[in-house]
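Team,

Forwarding the record for the chain on the shared tracking sheet. I've put the sequence and predicted structure together so nobody has to dig through attachments.
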Amino acid sequence: MRWECQGVSVDDGALPGLQRIGFVRTVRTPQFEGITFHEVLCKSALNKVPNAAMLPFRYTVNGYRGCSHACRYCFARPTHEYLDLGCGTDFDTQIVVKTNVAEVLRRELRRASWQRETVALGTNTDPYQRAEGRYALMPGIIGALAGSGTPLSILTKGTLLRRDLPLIADAAQQVPVSVAVSLAVGDPQLHRDVEPGTPTPQARLALIAAIRDAGLDCHVMVAPVLPHLTDSVEHLDGLLGQIGAAGATSVTVMGLHLRGSTRGWFMSWLARSHPELVANYRELYRRGAYLPPSYREMLRERAAPLIAKYRLAGDHRRVPRATEAAPVTPEPVQPTLF
């Protein structure tokens, strides 16, 4: 069988935290070597975002917990600790799959109290990570939202989104749809080290072009910018130039946040790969999870002329990808994966 080593309702070593969220079974397969899927039946699909005053959405849907993209800096790592799993390797390899998420979502969207507010997809872990190739949760989620008249946004590093472009384009004829790609590292060697499970920068540039060719706008999150690694004018110029050439509609450039246990995981990687930068990072983040105002202002000053140079300030008219148009006021900042 293609999916062997499966067990249903057995004690397979799943940790107690999974029982709290409707654990059904654990699945391992040679096609996903090194990754374990924990299938669960969720009780709810819509998540209300606490203190969402600064965000352009109040609701999210996440079909997965954990992410095989294995980005060293991922802000969502601490969420695995609630499941009694680790924020490091466990987060990268122990993937929780809400197999019934689309069915539950359709039920919740039928409630008379639902006001059809925008729902964001990809704000915690990536909805188009490798697991989506097996479980195909997104078509059901997108169909449920569009069919109920609910606007949606998608943020991803995953080129698997190409599979759903016809569905997304169709949804955009029914409700407002926002699509964004996360791409912050242009150097191939650094990409392999800091985002080892993600599609290459070139593959994501091709995804941006495909999104535009499908008649959709494409925002790009150039984030997180890594101090002393990807924040030089040369790196930003090269990356934004490629993003502009791919046809992106707009960009957001944002520096690295190191919250909770993500900080320790990232710093361990930095000590192995770039030990000469450890002291610099300790100084930059000595007051907490966020970069100091002086650094944020420096990054803004570096990025602003490049955003203008490559006409990425935010033209959201429906124009062909190759057509030039004058920049207009940017749309609200997209949610991030970090």
